[in-house]
Amino acid sequence: MTKWQAARALMFGNRCAGSTARGSGRLRRRHAASSALALALSIVGGCYPPASERLTCEDVDPPGSFDYGTLEQLVALDELGSKGCVAAPCHSAATQRAGVRLDTPGLVYDELSSSPEKYYELLASGVMPHDGEPWNDDELKTFRSWYCAGAFPP
Predict the structure, then answer these.
(1) Domain encompassing residue 109
(2) Same domain? 76 vs 34
């Protein structure tokens, strides 16, 4: 018996002492299966955004108490040009970063309604607007309210 086998025998008992011990194959298969399961869960768990970045219908304004125009204004440039998505280097007709164009009300609606979860995650995480000021809680609430009211066009 090698030092390694002796150490395993002390830690796990004789059934793990050597490759010929009874049950050692089952133990290795169980260990491999549990390791694979743990890896799969960590990969899948890493695919979901944190709860604060997921689009839900919690904490929304009642239907009719907000205007879709507010959401359009948030996407357009504000007075300082710090929050808009159509700034020169982003999603205007000339640039269309990532193939996304947000410079007309119809295009804003088409994009936001096609993948609202994706856009909400980008805005809530602060990834977008890329070079601008992140959306605050009230602005994100406007997005959630619009979505939860049925995401109707203007």
Answers:
(1) 53-148
(2) no
Residue 53 DSSP class: G
Verify that 96 and 20 share a domain, yes or no: no
Residue type, 147: Y
pLDDT (tens digit per residue) in 79-105 = 555 667 766 568 877 888 888 888 888
Q: What share of the chain is helix, strand, coil (3-state, %, to 5)?
A: 55, 0, 45
- N residues, the chain: 154
* pTM of the entire predicted model: 0.64
Q: How many Cβ atoms from other residues are within 10 Å of residue 14's Cβ?
A: 13
Angle at 109 between CA 146 and CA 90, to 5 degrees: 115
pLDDT in tens, 110-151: 888 888 999 899 899 988 887 778 889 999 999 999 888 887
